[in-house]
Design goal:
By secondary structure, this protein is an alpha/beta fold. The chain has two domains: about 110 residues, Enolase-like, domain 1, CATH 3.30.390; about 230 residues, Enolase-like C-terminal domain (TIM Barrel, Alpha-Beta Barrel). It is about 40% helix and about 25% strand. The protein is built from twelve helices and 16 strands. The strands form four sheets. The chain has an eight-stranded parallel β-sheet with strand order 5-6-7-8-9-10-11-12. It is globular, with a radius of gyration of 20 Å. The two termini are about 25 Å apart.
Length: about 350
Amino acid sequence: MQLTKAEVIPVQLNRRHPVRLAGLKEIQHIMAIFVRMETRQGQTAWGCTVAHPDLTGEKPEDVLHACRECADLVEDLNPINIEYSLNLLATRTKTSPAAMCAFDLAFHDLLGLAAGLPLYRILGGYRNRIQTSVTIPISPLEESIEIARARASQGFRILKIKGGLNPSEDVRRVRAIHAVLPNHTLRLDADGGYTIEEALDVCRALTNMLEMLEQPVPAHDLSGLRQVKELSPVPILADQSVSGPVSALELAANKIVDGLSIKLTTCGGLRNGRQIDAIACAAKITTMISCFIEPALLIAAGLSLALSSPNVHYGDLDGYLDLDNDPSSAGFRLEDGWLVAADVPGLGYTVNLG
């Protein structure tokens, strides 16, 4: 098998409704970058990534430049020697894990196509479905309740409530949603918006209502994160504090959190995501496979990782749901809040980009 071409295609993805996150302006769109690789044997593999300065920490133009540099190298790489190929590309994407993610996904997709197997089976095949949360964005109390009820009516049983701007208001929103949906699992994501004291107050106020609190304090405040974890009655997960295997090792080795959230875009793709999961497993802490606002193709890759490992206890893969113009359509099915894999080779998808 020989690669003959790699094409880089940027697409602006628009949300049907703007979303508000702690400390950020409303987000109406995000740049997605698709990578199409072709082989002399006629196979086509796809990868993708996303870029947004406030979400991923990378500027779209920088990620696009790094992707185009990688595309120039593809013809000289053997797609079956995946570790060698990805290691070479990693030297060109040291400052852009998002660009690395796009090519990592394409190479893994091609591996599945060459083997004639779904990627999640190649990676481990632990299960074929996982329950995902769905996000309740920062919004006024009554609107939050309305959104939660609407998502519940669609079959979702796990709700991830965004917060971090006002701890007292976050407590009121969680309590109100719990009151109307007492049998639903609730998670709270502060996106680093709390102080240590605020995080602990929230946890104590919501004991027995929350499954977890995600990233309570700023990403760089590992000491504060550990203090919250040691005193909190609610499990604490790191999200923005996890930027790759090195940061994951520090968090796990020092017992700073109860679990790690893995986003393929910020960690550089499936290869690094698997390393983070292995580190967490060795440290006996859990992992969650999460996402940004992103196309279904990238969600399919996250799902492949989530399905491959018994250490993945949480799925948070809803970032494709409210996109207006996603050119990718994944083969997985969404059934009452469960993502169910398709037994087709590779990542399993269709992409319509002309």
